[in-house]
């Protein structure tokens, strides 16, 4: 069969389908503006097909000539936030739709300064409004890798402090403002020496999990172990602060009892907070 006959047959089939209520495929798309270097934007349609863009430009999805469509953002870039206009509709013919507009506007970096961190240690900070973290290992300025959408709130807090130190955050709460980005870079994190609270576990059965908690810590400091040994809670404490070590979750088939679990941190006697013992036995 020659090429012209084949094209003729295909054309006839398309016309037959259209006349019988069938459909052909066309495209729906538009333009993206505002992406910056290094950003990746992923768009999705209602059939879960995706388009990935790393620069401003056009995009399109295949849609049936009589079908509905819904284009949305699947993955936002980091430094900008993108919104979709004209993203939903229903095709009324075979002409391509090109009026979807995706506009990306700058996000706001958050960070500040860190002082007092001991050498060869690190500190995990968290933005409590998003749960995203930043690990900082040197004193000086720091920046979260994840920016904040303009107009959204942020709260910088200590997630995991360094061993034998206690860290606090000042000026860590605010609202991201693209007109005043400097305001979101003014948090101050300060770390000072502190006393670790440690416990020694004996008698655990292999394959089980014991979770301990310092119930006197405002951060509900929990620590899970699977083997006998000596461990420290995540948070070291300041002089004069009380601690209460207790079992939060018993290992399966065992009961663990705590001795010397309560006390007050004393910088003149720091080892006292390391004398907590946990003895496990079959229930």
From TrEMBL:
PROSITE patterns: PROKAR_LIPOPROTEIN. It comes from the Bacteria. This is Carboxypeptidase regulatory-like domain-containing protein.
């Amino acid at each position: 069969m020659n090429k012209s006959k084949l094209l003729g047959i295909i054309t006839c089939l398309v016309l037959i389908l259209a006349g019988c209520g069938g459909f052909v495929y066309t495209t729906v798309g538009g333009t993206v503006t505002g992406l910056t270097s290094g950003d990746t934007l992923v768009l999705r349609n209602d059939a879960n097909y995706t388009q990935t863009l790393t620069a401003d430009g056009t995009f399109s999805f295949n849609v049936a000539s009589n079908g509905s469509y819904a284009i949305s953002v699947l993955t936002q870039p980091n430094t900008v936030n993108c919104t979709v206009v004209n993203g939903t509709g229903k095709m009324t013919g075979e002409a391509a739709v090109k009026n979807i507009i995706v506009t990306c506007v700058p996000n706001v970096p958050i960070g500040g300064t860190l002082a007092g961190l001991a050498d060869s240690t690190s500190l995990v900070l968290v933005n409590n409004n998003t749960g995203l973290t930043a690990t900082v290992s040197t004193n000086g300025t720091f920046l979260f890798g994840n920016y904040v959408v303009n107009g959204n709130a942020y709260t910088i807090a200590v997630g995991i402090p360094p061993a034998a130190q206690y860290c606090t955050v000042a000026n860590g709460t605010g609202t991201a403002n693209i007109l005043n980005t400097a305001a979101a870079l003014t948090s101050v994190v300060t770390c000072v020496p502190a006393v670790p609270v440690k416990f020694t576990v004996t008698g655990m059965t292999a394959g089980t999990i014991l979770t301990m908690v310092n119930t006197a810590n405002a951060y509900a400091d929990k620590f899970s172990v699977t083997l006998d040994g000596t461990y420290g809670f995540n948070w070291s404490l300041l002089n004069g602060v009380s601690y209460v070590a207790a079992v939060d979750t018993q290992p399966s088939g065992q009961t663990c009892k705590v001795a010397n679990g309560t006390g007050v941190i004393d910088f003149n006697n720091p080892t006292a907070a390391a004398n907590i013992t946990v003895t496990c036995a079959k229930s």
